[in-house]
Amino acid sequence: MLSVPRMRILLELRRHGTLAEVAYILNYTPSAISQQLSALEAETHVALTERVGRGLRLTRQGEILANHAEIVIAQLEQAEAELAASLGEVGGRMRIACFQSVLLTLVPETLTLLAQRFPELQIEVTQYDEPDAVGGLLSHEYDLILGEEYPGQPIRGSAGIEWDLLTLDPLRAALPMSGPWSDPRAVLAGLASAPWVLENESSAFGRWAIALMQEQGFTPHVPFVSTDILLHLHLVETGHAVALVPDLLWLSQTPRVRLVPLPGNPQRRLLTGVRDGSGGHPAIVALRQALRDVTDELHHRANSPAAPPV
């Protein structure tokens, strides 16, 4: 019988390409990972990897076994989920990872709702910058992650993950309330010379933002680069920059910037992701439902007649 932990090491090697990365993810030493791969090759009587430069890649036989490893591990995840569901209880520990706008807006009320519904369920939350969360989910560091997709920027590295749409989130330009960059008629091409605050182009948001502006005929001047959406807003509020922001931020606070629609009215897709096979776990079902309920309630409040216009 082949060793499932060793098959998982092979699968992680296919995802990451180096012993050092696999060792870091699985909390082993590189030499221990190498020994486990050698033992797996002894079990199968075939070479499963070959060296390419400083990394390793799977042989044809290694790819075959890794494909089966995905199926086996997903099946075990499903078995654990069904066992937990059979107990009829929601408890234990759930570790989630999310980006800043979700952490600011959705997570606090979700935690409150879950504490009311399932007091035995413990939630741990980590803020992340992409692509950390995908690797953390697949390596069992997290149980559920929040992901975001921008137009033309699908989530990367999502093999082995079940994604579920949480909501669609419109994106707008954020301008200062006064000053040279406050005219809403300037969006978007009229802001070609404005100072922008954006995320780095290595992020999905940064790539999308740059592509959007290039479609409008200009490459933005970006003196401020940060993943901190609160810093983006502060720079806009104080008149030092303009930005692109999601409507999600305004579901729980009043805008202090001028919000203007963008060409084509783009939206990002907010998703929840779990490992293949684990979606039926009662704690994950409860967590996803609470996120949906909170999102719907916040949208309802924001769209009520008493709510300030966005």
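(ticket continues) Second input and output from the same batch:
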Amino acid sequence: MKPILDKAREDHYAVAAPNVLDYKTIDVAIKTAEKKNAPIILNVTFETNDDLSTFVNYAKDKAIHSKVPVAINLDHGGDYEQIIKSLKMDFTSIMVDRSMLEFEDNIKEVSEIVKIAHTLGCSVEAELGHVGTNIGADSEGMLGSNTIITEEDKKATFTKVEEAVEYVERTKVDCLAVAIGTVHGLYPKGLKPSIDFELLKKLRDAVKVPLVIHGGSGSGDDNLARACKEGICKVNICSDLLKKGREYINNGYLKDSDDMLTKLMYPLPAYYAGYSDMLEYYIDLFKSTNKA
């Protein structure tokens, strides 16, 4: 992942990092990237598949034969044992999430993993500050107990510039996920996130590795386009891709010649079409089209 993101940093665009949840979404994500002649980063979670090794091997085979650069990234890697297991697979990068730890503990754990990963030729992403979550919120405005509701909730965990500089120097990570206003998951209806672009500028100027934002879905086209232009090099997206897939199913997105029974019995083609169209839209928005 490092060379893909280093190029994005140099040329002021961002690479889309969609979550791939099954074998078909691996195919769809890579084909969409090839259509746009864009690099792509496949985000895989440890819970994606019961046989994760086979799943990652499948992604690796597709990546090797792809016409565009493809990275396979472990998203939000968990405990030490899980990380080591992942390094034995064919991931090209791992995201080590220790953002809930105290600063020194975060550095200690991530530094140890970076040494091992770099020995094996694997890139490492880490997070400083903490990107909150909208788990429990849906597009109709129903809120759950874990929902980030106010801007104050987010600002309390924003990334600090001085800490980010020290963190990168001490851990030797290849890229850094920062908290500047986005959150994971769907936003409640009517809630629009704000991005601290002044903080982003300071981070971009001070930190010498590519910056990442998690929680791209629902963050607003203007916000994301500007963030990618002004320093973000990787944008994680998932909820919007899944949401668009569901919309296509609900709207009966198949050819007019297909009868209603076909649409009801075989919804998955519509789902994957929605996923692909939304991913294509974001690739254009992030300005990575024709950057392969």
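Agent notes: The mean pLDDT is 86. The chain has one domain: 2-239. Closing as not reproducible unless the customer responds.
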